[in-house]
Design brief:
Radius of gyration: 13 Å
Number of helices: 5
Oligomer: single chain
Distance between the termini: 28 Å
Strand content: under 5%
Number of strands: 0
Largest sheet: none
């Protein structure tokens, strides 16, 4: 899945196409650091796209960086208040604290 993310980021960079990014799979949990690296890159390239923020926050939580996940989600909600998945993940993060 990390490979797919890299390909889609490269395609977006060169074509400007807004590719839909599927969430990373359980296989990527074995390589969480690399997955986070690419999630951060995607989020930096598209900070106003809530899908990238959501995916980054999800994997930050998986890694145990709860405060960073909360910050990413709060920022995503501020930027795109209509994206309900950010609220749901934020509630889930708070619940697991």
């Amino acid at each position: 899945m990390v490979y797919i993310l890299k390909v889609r980021l490269a395609r977006e960079k060169h074509t400007g196409t807004d590719a839909v990014l599927p969430p990373l799979t359980a296989e990527d949990k074995r390589n969480l650091d690399e997955a986070l690296l690419w999630c951060r890159k995607a989020h930096e390239l598209r900070p106003d796209d809530p899908k990238y923020a959501h995916t980054l926050a999800f994997y930050l939580r998986e890694k145990g960086d709860i405060q960073a996940a909360i910050q990413v989600l709060r920022d995503a909600i501020r930027r795109q208040p209509g994206y309900l998945d950010s609220y749901l993940l934020l509630a889930d993060v708070y619940e697991t604290q």
